[in-house]
Amino acid sequence: MESKSGDGTTKNIRYRHAGDLTGEPPTREFAEVTIPVPWGHLAGKWYGPQDVQPILGLHGWQDNAGTFDLLVPLLPPDIAFLSVDLPGHGLSSRLPDGCYYNTIDNLYIIRVIMKQYKWEKLSLIGHSMSSIIGFVFAAVFPDKVDMFIGIDALKPHQRPFPSVIRTMETRMDEFLREDERNRNKSEPPSYTYNELIERIYVGTFHSVNKDLCKHMLARNIQKSEKYPDKYFFTRDRRLKFYNYAVGSQELCVEMARRITCPYLFIKARNSSYFEDKKYYDEVMDVLKTKPNFEYVEADGTHHLHINNPENVIGPIVDFINRFGPVARTKQAKAAKQAAQADKESKL
């Protein structure tokens, strides 16, 4: 994805998937889509049929729509899937200057996507940060979610209060610095392709296998205009100071009580809980009382859906087949036919 300057040279080169850099075909054919928002657009990758409602896929912190590049090809071909770059990530527009990134703001993003495609209800799969976003969305809008699959981050994390206050102080200072740098418009530091792969690998704490980091890289970089063999990261540097705070543990427990949709949570065995496990356990105990909540543990790191998609695709497909958009369409059709048959039997 590129544009030409007046002198015919290439500038502003952006990449949609790893193959735009390596020459490989996409892991599954997709259509690049854009969704208008007041400050620009959201970008996404639509896989599969476009005449049915897709499952909405949302990625983790500082990742992008490429997070599902290795999972989606394992889905049945009749399942549509829309993987979206959240604001400031991938090919989506950054928030305007001076705006802070927050968990709660992403509830608005989901509602915008639903409005764009005229969805009354949502089928959602989220990894990490977006697993938390999905948890909150399903609690706040229980009548707008048909099914939800969360991967490896259950709920808003709890921190000791002194740590929360200190984090607020330091992150605001750092955010102001990065916000000013954004307005500067100067090109960020650039790196060779191999250096970028290493930075992704180290940045995920080795959670993504190095040979698969290319899938997380492509949508987050741009060709340097200064150095022909180098690239720079395009994700908004203000994301480093993203505000995860949502509320107290008591609020998280109440959110868990409010979730009514079919809900599958997948926990990676080789990943942490991101908070004192007692908070995780308390919410999990609430969820496990629900008849439509399902829990799966699978081998792998925090990014197991990239490294080991074969370890999770079975329960995901089974869950989608029972509760996803195709299943809902079949159920609605069967109900309509049954009602028509009942009506005709009374004539």
Automatic annotation (TrEMBL):
InterPro entries: AB_hydrolase_1, AB_hydrolase_fold, AB_hydrolase_sf. Keywords: Hydrolase, Membrane, Transmembrane, Transmembrane helix. Residues 54-309 form the AB hydrolase-1 domain. Residues 1-12 have a biased composition (Polar residues). Residues 1-23 are annotated as: Disordered. It holds the Pfam family Abhydrolase_1. Gene3D superfamilies: alpha/beta hydrolase. It comes from the Eukaryota. The chain crosses the membrane at residues 122-141. One of its GO terms (molecular function) is hydrolase activity. PANTHER family: MONOACYLGLYCEROL LIPASE, SERINE HYDROLASE-LIKE PROTEIN DDB_G0286239. Belongs to the AB hydrolase superfamily. This is Probable serine hydrolase isoform X2. The lineage of its organism: Eukaryota, Metazoa, Ecdysozoa, Arthropoda, Hexapoda.
